Amino acid sequence: MGINVNVYSYWGVRTEWHEGVSDRMNEVYDIDKNELEILTDCYSCEYMVFGVQLYDSGDSRWGEMINSNEVDITQDKLDQMRFDYMEQFKRQYPDQYEWLAAKPWRLVNLVHYS
Q1: Is 93 exposed, middle or buried (0-12, 13-18, 19+ CB in 10 A)?
Q2: Which residues pair with 52 in a beta bridge?
Q3: What DSSP element (H or E) covers 108?
Q4: What's the total number of domains in the chain?
Q5: Pairwise CA distance, residues 37 & 8, whole Å
Q6: Of 5, 40, 66, 73, whose CB is crowded by the most CB atoms within 10 A?
Q7: Percent of the chain having pLDDT more than 90?
Q8: Structural domain of 80
C-alpha cells in the first residue's frame, strides 16, 4: 500500500468536515453524471474543499510532479465559476446549500494525501 500525494489549487471554499454533505455524496455517487467535484479528506475527516480545480500537480506516487502552471483568469471568470458551481450544488445538495453559500470563496492551495 502506498500514499498518493497531490498538490491542488481550487477557486472555492475549504471547510471543516460536514457529515450531511458526506452522507449526501454517498447517495448522489454514480446517480448523477454531472456530480460535483468535492475534495474530501476521507482518512481523518478534517476538511472538504468545494469549488473549481485550477491546478493538479499530478501524483508523486506514480512519477514526477508538475512543478508549475499558469491560469489565465479574470474576476468575471471567477464569478461565473462560483455561480455555476453553486447552482449545481443547490440542485444536488439542497439541504446544505445555505451553509456553503454563506462562506467566502478564496484561492485554496493544499497538499492532499490519499
Answers
A1: buried
A2: 11
A3: strand 106-113
A4: 1
A5: 13
A6: 40
A7: 47
A8: 5-113
What cell does 63 get?
512519477
Distance CA 34, CA 89 (A): 10
Residue 47: beta bridge partners?
16
Residue 19 has pLDDT above 80, yes or no: yes
Whole-model pTM: value is: 0.82
- Measure the CA–CA gap between 42 and 55, rounded to whole angstroms: 21
pLDDT, tens digit (0-9, with 9 covering 90-100), for 52-80: 999 988 787 777 777 777 888 899 999 99
Host H or E run for residue 97: helix 97-101
112 and 39 in contact (C-beta within 8 Å)?
yes
If you write DSSP's letter for every residue of 23-67 in order, what string do you get?
Answer: HHHHHHTTT-TTPPPEEE-TTT--EEEEEEEEEE---TTSSPPP-
pLDDT of residue 67: 74
